[in-house]
Specification:
mainly alpha; cell membrane; single chain; Lgt; membrane; globular; 262 residues; 9 helices; 3-stranded mixed β-sheet; phosphatidylglycerol-prolipoprotein diacylglyceryl transferase activity
Length: 262
């Protein structure tokens, strides 16, 4: 059994300005996506130039932040949003939904593809491998913030988080960092190293993330104000992730079917 180290969520204070670890994790994610994107854009099959990556990451950042914050309150805390609309501006408090961020990024990709006359699926294939490092960094931010804890467990690496009581719990944030961040990055970077059918990389991202997230949901505590939706184990995360798996598998099937036709 381990004890949570009680990490201060504030990384640095400069006078009245407090810089939170959670916010720094977003900077890490965007910086990694920008650097990898500039490198990846040098490939002959890239739909964008290295210079266009700058604008693409900017558009993506807007989509992630707005979509994730709005999505959290719509999916998980709608009543709280009605009582406190300014919660949308307090990014350092957490409360960011991946599924909302995905919707926000998708809308921005549609806008970017339309504005620059780029094939949307090719753009999505380009961007998918750039995302996991940011996802992993975000889950590390959740761990530092002491949020999204797992269910009670007696595994040797279970952690006691005092605000939740004496029971040791799965450090589910670290599970998600390992699967949604590290493992997903390795999988997508390997898969995208060679030319793939149009839409296959984006499809793999959706399917693999959905599988990884759905797996960890079995170890993660549901939101207190929502609880389990059914069967004593089905969570909102399961419900939101299932369409991703279905769409992702369908997109992979369609991509390879189109290649066979051609």
């Amino acid at each position: 059994m381990l004890t949570y180290p009680n990490i201060d969520p504030i990384a640095l204070e400069i006078g009245p300005v407090a810089i939170h670890w959670y916010g720094l994790m977003y900077i890490v994610g965007f910086a990694a996506a920008w650097g990898l994107g500039r490198w990846r854009a040098k490939r002959a099959d890239s739909p964008v130039t290295p210079q266009q990556v700058d604008d693409l990451i900017f558009f993506g950042a807007i989509g992630v932040v707005l979509g994730a914050k709005i999505g959290y309150h719509l999916f998980y805390n709608f009543t709280g949003l009605l009582n406190d609309p300014l919660a949308l501006l307090r990014l350092w408090e957490g409360g960011m939904s991946f599924h909302g961020g995905l919707i926000g990024v998708t809308l921005m990709l549609v806008l970017y593809a339309w504005r620059h006359q780029i094939d949307l699926l090719r753009l999505a294939d380009f961007g998918a491998p750039l995302v996991p490092i940011g996802l992993g960094a975000g889950r590390l931010g959740n761990f530092i913030n002491g949020e999204l804890w797992g269910r009670a467990s007696d595994v040797p690496w279970a952690m006691v988080y005092e605000p939740l009581g004496p029971e040791p719990r799965h450090p589910s944030q670290l599970y998600q960092m390992g699967l949604e961040g590290i493992a997903l990055f390795i999988l997508l970077w390997w898969f995208s190293a060679k030319p793939r059918p149009r839409g296959a990389i984006a499809g793999l991202f959706l399917a693999a993330y959905g599988i990884f997230r759905g797996f960890v949901e079995f170890f993660r505590m549901p939101d207190d104000h929502i609880g389990y939706l059914a069967f004593g184990w089905l969570t909102m995360g399961h419900l939101l992730t299932l369409p991703m798996i279905l769409i992702g598998c369908g997109l992979i099937w369609w991509a390879y079917r189109q290649r066979l036709k051609n």
